[in-house]
Prior knowledge:
Layout: H1 4-18, E1 25-32, E2 38-49, E3 55-64, H2 66-112, H3 118-143, E4 152-154, H4 156-168, E5 176-181, E6 188-190, H5 192-209, E7 216-226, E8 240-249, H6 256-259, H7 279-289, E9 293-299, E10 303-311, E11 333-337, H8 341-353, E12 357-361, H9 364-373, E13 380-384, H10 392-402, E14 408-412, H11 420-426, E15 430-433, H12 438-453
Parallel strand pairs: 5-7, 11-12, 11-13, 13-14, 14-15
Antiparallel strand pairs: 1-2, 2-3, 4-6, 7-8, 8-10, 9-10
Helix pairs in contact: 2-3, 3-7, 4-5, 5-7, 9-10
The structure holds adenosine-5'-diphosphate and magnesium ion.
Amino acid sequence: xxxxxxxxxxxxxxxxxxxxxxxxxxxxxxxxxxxxxxxxxxxxxxxxxxxxxxxxxxxxxxxxxxxxxxxxxxxxxxxxxxxxxxxxxxxxxxxxxxxxxxxxxxxxxxxxxxxxxxxxxxxxxxxxxxxxxxxxxxxxxxxxxxxxxxxxxxxxxxxxxxxxxxxxxxxxxxxxxxxxxxxxxxxxxxxxxxxxxxxxxxxxxxxxxxxxxxxxxxxxxxxxxxxxxxxxxxxxxxxxxxxxxxxxxxxxxxxxxxxxxxxxxxxxxxxxxxxxxxxxxxxxxxxxxxxxxxxxxxxxxxxxxxxxxxxxxxxxxxxxxxxxxxxxxxxxxxxxxxxxxxxxxxxxxxxxxxxxxxxxxxxxxxxxxxxxxxxxxxxxxxxxxxxxxxxxxxxxxxxxxxxxxxxxxxxxxxxxxxxxxxxxxxxxxxxxxxxxxxxxxxxxxxxxxxxxxx
Length: 454
Ligand SMILES: Nc1ncnc2c1ncn2[C@@H]1O[C@H](COP(=O)(O)OP(=O)(O)O)[C@@H](O)[C@H]1O
Ligand SMILES: [Mg+2]
């Protein structure tokens, strides 16, 4: 069976052939296999004519070219991503320079404006918007692999397990997570925070796709090795050892038109406010940065499978103290503020895994209210910087006015604007850049708590 369009094209060509308007029949079309899936066919034929120039017979062949088509598509896809990447990278750099001028000048302006002037509030708005814009630029740079996240030989299975724990708490409870994580996967040259980011993005998409179903996300990690035949899996692969990460859902799936575009930055099919379209672009950038490949299989209403192959690292990994069991713990009470609910949940979960008691708020004004109710209820305050209604430094200035000795920590998504010096000038005891490394976070929290108790 073929589609009506294809059969019309084919029929027209057939007619041209037997009426000698063309001398060769050659056409590509899709045909439905008897088990239901579509196959790409290359059909070639010649006509045989009798002495009266009447076609008596058409002979030809049908060749299944599905594999070749798949490879051609993957190649086109890779080229497209490459050119979008170059474009986005160029824009990001150019934009970053302009932004630095805006933000820098605004800072100078702010220093001139007295606390009480209304213009200072406007200037503050400019500053917050500038910080947001910096975050956007940073995301774009991750997509174009131009970020400078450090890669080192790591064992990714504990990272995947840890990520799953964090994801569990941030997706709806009626969605199950089934994990099949092999213990002895090969080491990979990677960045733990970025691998965590991959899983968060893939799983939140999977959860979104299964909204009303209460289905299962399957996550698996295993070793995989390829010989010469690997090009059939993906043209960018070369023979060797890999670690394979798969995220499989049974959700809404995607049609080919959507599939073609999912890795483009800002491509989304979700409602405004629900999707930003940057998740998979970031995943793509991270996978490339790890010299890996990513591919997708999806069918509408059936579900989606994302497969990522990381090249195995050839050599030993040096054991460092990055193991979770070595992380310092505690049982103090922490007030945690971030306007982004997902980050808030993840941070809370991380701290709770370490033993701390956490009260979290997305609205800094709420947090301040709670703090005022009992200024001795908390041992530490951790806050985001750019938030609506009240920035992190404003919040902490208020808190320190009420209780000058309480330790405070700033977590921020940008670097240039608020330096370590500036943060400590405001009164912050510690400063961390997002995305925050798990062990660094644990160590810093313990350190400032200990310092405050001495
Ligand atoms: N597991 C999935 N199932 C169905 N569609 C998906 C899945 N993952 C991604 N998509 C599609 O890809 C688009 C882009 O995803 P992403 O880059 O993460 O941006 P966002 O989630 O903000 O829309 C989504 O809007 C959705 O249409
Ligand atoms: Mg997403």
